[in-house]
Amino acid sequence: LKRRLHELRGCAGPTCLVAPRLRLFLRSEGRPVSSCVRDDLRVRVGGSERNDIMTADVLVGRRRVGRALTPPVVEDIPLRQLRSRGRFRLRVRTETIDGRRLTLDRVLRACR
User: What stretches of the chain adopt beta strand conformation (E)?
Assistant: First the structure.
């Protein structure tokens, strides 16, 4: 913590505003989600800074359906918690140990 604080004190310019290097990975029926969700959804946050995540909230629309307080961030969302028709927004709000925040969004639809 002391080292991180020392790094932030000397931080100036655009390098301080760099977002964490994180990506969103989605799987349904054991395969990556490309067009629509057929079964329960597995949400995973990856990337080179995935171990620096302090909290992550998983939202479907405005409703929180999962929360991870320790890495790795992997949440399983049952199909019944997803929207039954049309499109919905899946959002993962993350915060890293050093206080940076990143929101990862994906618009999906349920195959019915």
Answer: 23-28, 31-32, 41-46, 53-60, 63-68, 74-77, 87-96, 101-109
